[in-house]
Amino acid sequence: MDALSETLRVVQLVGAIFLQGRFTAPWCYQSPRADAAAPLLEPDAERVVIFHLVTEGECFVELDHQPPVRLGAGDVIVFSQGDAHRMGSAPGLTPAPATPLKELLQRRPRQLMYGGGGAPTRLLCGYLACDARLARLLLAGLPPLVRVNVRGSNAGTWLEASVRYALAEARSPRPGGAGVLSKLAEVLFIEVLRLYINEQSAGRTGWLAGLGDRVVGAALNALHQRPAHAWTLDELAREAGTSRSVLAERFQHLVGSSPMQYLIQWRMMLAANLLCRSKAPLSRIAEDVGYQTDTAFIRAFRREYGVPPATWRRRRAALEELTEPP
User: 126 phi and psi, to 5 degrees?
Assistant: First the structure.
């Protein structure tokens, strides 16, 4: 399994499409920062990432101090830093009076219609909620605004048709429609990441850029496939088909850490996942993520998370108990 698939398998993602908009020119709508909407979208999430899919027509998106970006049908735009933004039929329009977020998000997916009666634009607004460490991993090195067009991918036509079907089902009395829509939001976000890896230009850095690099990508895949293995830089370089000096330099440049530092971080993410989702003893978890002694594992976990694994597990269990519905 490749590094992206393995990461998404291990770390729990929660996604949903929360708004379906039909706007007619002239129109402009202001969206707040993601952290303002997060408590209403996914109260327990450490990080929420907002994205939009344009299904018909065209529009412009504006971030403060950046030139406007034109979007067309099939474009997905992701706000990797959670910035407030404006979307409208043309740049520079005055946003419509904002509906209070709590009211807007009371019923999901909410249908919103607004505008002056001109050319129509349809778009979907969704989010992905995840652990803060996973967000840093996935979003490192990304520009504040990431745009890809899913209609150019093999999955694009199927995704758009499936989302339209799921939106209709979410409004029907049949059970399960919201669950289908949630899964499709996650699939759509993953497809955006895959397309970004393939389309990225020279000079970009970050974890996704590393996955798209022949040398660093091979090393990342090896580390994710065998995280408990006692890797050395020499052995990892052989897996990547290069020298240790080239691997070390390229890995540091793209990912922002050495291969061995990255391996420790990935092992700790695996350990946190096992602590949350299983009742396995610490000795078993330590062995599963590549540590021969509990002491070494506890020391590494404390460095990454600030507390010993047993304490972290108890706190997470207490938090989940508090947030469970009555």
Answer: -140, 175
